[in-house]
């Protein structure tokens, strides 16, 4: 049985290691964080993953086929899954973890090894960063090197690991083929082969496509408000066209990839990237737009209390990475508003979280930032009775606002003008 060493046991590395450990490989999982190693050795999972994935990880660790270590060891395959953060100041990829992870396997690399980088990376990282490090200890002709970007979505990882198509780009055809054979152990989707730099670009293009299209939807929302048009209705109708797929507007873009990855393209081709940085600007300015929209609704209230509903970056999960809720809260705090926060999923946050009743008690306005399903079934009358003023500002168009109005709420929804044009006029 071949042995795989996975470097980095975070959101991507831990589930990836588990998939291989449960599909015929001996697996050594390595993390430099001693807390991660200790907790996994005891079968405790240090990150929030979906229930099925947690069970599979625990099963793999119990089976002794998945060993947790703090240092790499000899293996047939090395898979690097460390983070590639954004250097906020320079707006460039921070490759220090990829570099140190590649360096950490140098003493163990031998002829015939397959080395795969899964971490999201700017185009050219494999050829210009990873390969030169490997060449310090072995001729590149003696090993196989490939990029296999990860595109699963948190919350539905298990299904996506198995069913998603994958892109694999090797430094040569043999490397692509060797890497493909490894992933075929559990991937049921198609595996497409290309070169390493194209594979890097493909992952960045996917996330950037989403960012640019969300920016377009956000711009449509602002324009529609200006022109007295309901943007949600307009988008729904435009999407009836067979080749149109307008995204949803909202308070900004969060998550592990979409708000970060476009910068990895921009940094590599500054003179040509015009639309991509502009789309970033539109999306990062949405919290400001939302706060102004909210202030318009509460301007008549003295010392208003605002209740934020939802701080996760997207619906029905507890993940707060890059959530637009943080810039919104920061802006509100700067303006000295009193804020209370309720999120039925998130347990840990940099601001205090309250129960539903405490969050709405004596509040003047609810601001929906995340479209959790729980908000659809909330007892409107009950929470309305606890509030001082009944105002709802919804940045996601995620609740039945007619019901809220029937319960005495004044409602403002992003992209729906105050006096919506009478279509029959
Ligand atoms: N999280 C996602 O939803 C997602 C989705 C697609 C792609 N990605 C990409 O996958 C990559 C990994 O992201 P993540 O979310 O798993 O990151 P993460 O921060 O959750 O995990 C990274 C882990 O690597 C460990 N680490 C860092 N340097 C190390 C080293 N030298 N040796 C051993 N361990 C080391 C850290 O301690 C940490 O536990 C990133 O490039 C990210 O862009 C993430």
From TrEMBL:
Entry's Gene Ontology molecular function annotations: NAD binding; oxidoreductase activity, acting on the CH-CH group of donors, NAD or NADP as acceptor; UDP-N-acetyl-D-mannosamine dehydrogenase activity
Residue ranges of the UDP-glucose/GDP-mannose dehydrogenase C-terminal domain?
Answer: 307-401
Gene3D superfamilies (UniProt xref)? NAD(P)-binding Rossmann-like Domain (3.40.50.720)
Q: Which UniProt keywords apply?
A: NAD, Oxidoreductase
TM stretches of this protein:
none
Hey, which family's this protein in?
A: Belongs to the UDP-glucose/GDP-mannose dehydrogenase family.
List the protein's name: UDP-N-acetyl-D-mannosamine dehydrogenase
Q: Which organism is it from?
A: Candidatus Altarchaeum hamiconexum
What broad taxonomic lineage does this protein's source fall under? Archaea, Candidatus Altarchaeota, Candidatus Altiarchaeia, Candidatus Altarchaeales, Candidatus Altarchaeaceae
């Amino acid at each position: 049985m071949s042995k795989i060493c996975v470097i980095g046991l975070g959101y991507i590395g831990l589930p990836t290691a588990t998939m291989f450990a449960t599909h015929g490989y001996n697996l050594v999982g390595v993390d430099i964080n001693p807390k991660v190693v200790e907790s996994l050795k005891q079968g405790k999972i240090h990150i929030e993953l979906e229930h099925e994935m947690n069970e599979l990880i625990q099963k793999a660790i119990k089976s002794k086929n998945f060993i947790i270590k703090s240092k790499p060891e000899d293996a047939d395959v090395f898979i690097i899954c460390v983070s590639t953060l954004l250097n906020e100041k320079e707006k460039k990829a921070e490759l220090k973890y990829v570099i140190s992870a590649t360096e950490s396997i140098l003493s163990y690399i031998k002829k015939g090894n397959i080395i795969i980088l899964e971490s999201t990376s700017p185009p050219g990282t494999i050829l210009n960063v990873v390969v030169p490090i490997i060449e310090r200890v072995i001729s590149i002709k003696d090993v196989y090197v490939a990029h296999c970007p990860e595109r699963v979505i948190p919350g539905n990882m298990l299904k996506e690991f198995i069913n998603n198509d994958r892109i694999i780009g090797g430094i040569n055809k043999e490397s692509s083929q060797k890497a493909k054979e490894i992933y075929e152990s559990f991937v049921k989707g198609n595996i497409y082969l290309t070169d390493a730099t194209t594979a890097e670009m493909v992952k960045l293009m996917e996330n950037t496509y989403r960012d640019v299209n969300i920016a377009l939807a956000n711009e449509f929302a602002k324009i529609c408000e200006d022109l007295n048009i309901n943007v949600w209705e307009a988008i729904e109708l435009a999407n009836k066209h067979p080749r149109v797929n307008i995204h949803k507007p909202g308070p900004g873009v969060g998550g592990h990839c979409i708000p970060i990855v476009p910068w990895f393209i921009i940094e590599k081709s500054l003179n040509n990237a015009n639309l991509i940085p502009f789309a970033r600007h539109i999306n990062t300015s949405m919290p400001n737009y939302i706060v102004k929209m909210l202030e318009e609704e509460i301007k008549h209230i003295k010392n208003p209390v605002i209740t934020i509903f939802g701080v996760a970056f997207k619906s029905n999960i507890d993940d707060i990475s890059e959530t637009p809720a943080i810039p919104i809260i920061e802006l509100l705090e700067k303006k000295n508003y009193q804020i209370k926060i309720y999120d039925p999923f998130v347990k840990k946050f940099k601001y205090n979280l309250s129960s539903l009743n405490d969050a709405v008690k004596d509040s003047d306005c609810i601001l929906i930032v995340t479209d959790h399903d729980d908000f659809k079934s909330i007892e409107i009358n009950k929470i309305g009775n606890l509030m001082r003023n009944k105002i709802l500002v919804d940045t996601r168009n995620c609740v039945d606002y007619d019901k809220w109005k029937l319960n005495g709420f004044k409602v403002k929804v992003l992209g729906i003008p105050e006096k919506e044009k009478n279509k029959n006029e």
